[in-house]
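Quick question: what would this complex look like in 3D?
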Amino acid sequence: MARVVVDVMLKPEILDPQGQAVQRALPRLGFEGIADVRQGKRFELEVEGPVDDAALARIREIAETFLANTVIEDFTVRIEADQAADAALAAQAES
Amino acid sequence: MTARVGVITFPGTLDDRDTQRAVRVAGLDAVPLWHRDKDLKQVDAVVLPGGFSYGDYLRAGAISRFSPVMESVIEQAKAGMPVLGICNGFQVLTETHLLPGAMLRNNHLHFICRDQKLRVENAETAWTRSYEQGQEINIPLKNIDGRYVADERVLDELEAEGRVVVRYRGGGLGGYPPKERSNPNGSLRDIAGITNEAGNVVGLMPHPEHAVEPLIGTGGTDGLGFFTSILKKLVDA
């Protein structure tokens, strides 16, 4: 089964106090040099059947209507790397 | 015959019983509605009460939005039926886009529980006509995802059209955050509640249903006006 990853992040202009709390904790733990942290969500979708354009369009719709609230969040959709390689191989084999 | 007000229960809703009681105290019939039931039982208005529907999973209100009962609520709200969302109910209304903007984690990351002063900015909505414009009221506030955000254009529009219904005012009266902090959660432009263009859909974070009888809550009855407003609206209609 192919895996598609949807990353959801707060829009840059939206204050992220959770990310700030993480960033402020870093020096206390001895980790220096991190200027900013923003926290987001990662969804891993195991897709039945081929991840073709139609499937990706459907997943974008899922992300836009449900996984992300586009009033406050942006999202990206991608096929997971090794899965992408498998898909490319499969496509080659088909052609 | 008095008006019938539906009160929805989602899995994880906490304040449905208090809301039903507040509806009855105001002299209306309270009709319990279940999230899986599309049938609104011919109610004249609906309240979405507070709590943690679906555990606040994904985002507060995000999953409730897709429940069968909400299909009917969205349809009826667009046709003009009065709808009030309190706390989690407000979050559901923003997720359904019946109201603009979104709710995020409080800027101080703490759960708030305090009595909160509010200023009634719009006393003409279906849910606020028992109040005077500019009246200050004191009702409980309790949440962790209470920070109202919207982009500047939407905020300007809300203010220009008088769609900010209640604003946070002055200090809280006990509990967290300390009373010196008048804006309890970082809500943009101190917004505690808003309405849609038609004025039939209202959402607010504080809890009027916990301030309808002197014995409990704040010790006052400042929240009762939301429920007597709807009685006035429905009986006048």
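Answer marked as accepted. Chain A has one domain: 2-14+40-94.
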